[in-house]
């Protein structure tokens, strides 16, 4: 018999004795060696199963407690970060912004991508703002929906934002209060001095390098809506027509509530070169052209940096 390591003579004798006893038992039962081994295993299982179940239960309980502790730590961490505010932690404004995305057919693939990143940026601004400025995006369908579903799938976990498929005419009709809607547009002399409680401000959800001039103002008139522009001229200098990007308009509204000062809001949201009217290559060019041309060009422009930031935001907003 092969001598197992580290066993005393006495232990060896005990083992040999057990083996003989086992052989006798096995023969009495008329079982083969394998059948007998199986029987022993079953017996051992029966003897230890209560203990095994108890230890499994304890392990499960410990894992659950660890998961609960982690969730609590994450929750506290999230509370510390700006950008993770729930409406109950924000101050009410009674103001909502509705991004009108019914211009899907008028945009290139790249412009759709840019718009999706702008909406991501708006979502981020909505979650970080000390004030609750409601955000609704509609209709998210066709190419914009495809873009969100494939490139920003985490939007499905976004909270406190409405992303619907209704055209804005339906939203207005369903509210029964057309007088509570104001369409933001740069193409009017009507200046909005302050944002009013109970109003919904519509922002054109389009990136069009101003190919479609007066698009939103015409739509607003067709829908019988009031229109208004931000008081840009009073506070900042911008060359050409004072057309801003969709996301900037929403971010400015959020900042206006924080400062109650348009100048501060413009300065905080708009890039410095826009504020100074410093446009690249050509002067007297439309601000929106600058935004869109920068997005179009292959260079490492500030707008591309904005887009990269938006992409990062999109990725980090998974469960927010
Ligand atoms: C890129 S612009 C769209 C330009 C488009 N050609 C149009 O007809 O409005 C995106 C949206 O931001 C809003 N916007 C841009 N500049 C604005 C301004 N100076 N005042 C108020 N809203 C503005 C408008 O709602 C506009 O539709």
Automatic annotation (TrEMBL):
GO terms for cellular component: nucleus. One of its GO terms (biological process) is tRNA N1-guanine methylation. Residues 54-63 have a biased composition (Basic residues). Residues 43-53, 64-82 have a biased composition (Basic and acidic residues). Keywords: Methyltransferase, S-adenosyl-L-methionine, Transferase. It is an enzyme of class 2 (transferase). Residues 18-91, 290-320 are annotated as: Disordered. InterPro entries: MT_TRM10-typ, MT_TRM10-typ_sf, TRM10/TRM10A, tRNA_m1G_MeTrfase_euk. The keyword Transmembrane does not apply. It catalyses: guanosine(9) in tRNA + S-adenosyl-L-methionine = N(1)-methylguanosine(9) in tRNA + S-adenosyl-L-homocysteine + H(+). Residues 303-313 have a biased composition (Acidic residues). Its EC number is 2.1.1.221. The active site is at 208 (proton acceptor). The keyword Transferase applies. PANTHER family: TRNA (GUANINE-9-) METHYLTRANSFERASE, TRNA METHYLTRANSFERASE 10 HOMOLOG A. This is tRNA (guanine(9)-N1)-methyltransferase.
């Amino acid at each position: 018999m092969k001598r197992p390591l580290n066993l005393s003579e006495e232990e060896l004798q005990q083992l040999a004795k057990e083996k003989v006893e086992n052989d006798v038992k096995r023969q009495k039962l008329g079982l083969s060696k394998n059948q007998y081994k199986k029987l022993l295993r079953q017996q051992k299982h029966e003897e230890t199963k209560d203990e095994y179940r108890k230890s499994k239960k304890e392990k499960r309980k410990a894992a659950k407690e660890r998961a609960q502790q982690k969730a609590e730590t994450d929750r506290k961490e999230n509370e510390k970060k700006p950008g993770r505010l729930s409406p109950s932690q924000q101050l009410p404004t009674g103001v909502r912004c509705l991004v009108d995305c019914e211009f899907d057919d008028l945009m290139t693939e790249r412009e759709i991508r840019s718009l999706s990143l702008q909406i991501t940026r708006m979502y981020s601004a909505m979650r970080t703002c000390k004030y609750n400025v409601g955000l609704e995006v509609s209709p998210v369908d066709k190419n914009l929906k495809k873009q969100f579903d494939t490139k920003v799938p985490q939007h499905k976990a976004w909270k406190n934002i409405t992303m619907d498929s209704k055209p804005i005419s339906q939203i207005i009709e369903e509210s029964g209060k057309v007088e509570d809607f104001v369409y933001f547009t740069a193409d009017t002399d009507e200046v909005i001095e302050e944002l009013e409680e109970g109003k919904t401000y519509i922002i054109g959800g389009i990136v069009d390098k101003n190919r479609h001039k007066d698009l939103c103002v015409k739509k607003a008139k067709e829908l019988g809506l009031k229109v208004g522009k931000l008081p840009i001229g009073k506070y900042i200098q911008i060359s050409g027509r004072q057309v801003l990007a969709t996301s900037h308009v929403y971010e400015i509204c959020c900042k206006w509530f924080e400062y109650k000062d348009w100048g501060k809001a413009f300065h905080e949201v708009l890039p410095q070169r826009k504020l100074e009217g410093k446009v690249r290559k050509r002067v007297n060019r439309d601000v929106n052209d600058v935004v869109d041309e920068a997005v179009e060009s292959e260079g490492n422009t500030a707008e591309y940096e904005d887009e990269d930031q938006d992409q990062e935001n999109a990725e980090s907003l998974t469960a927010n």
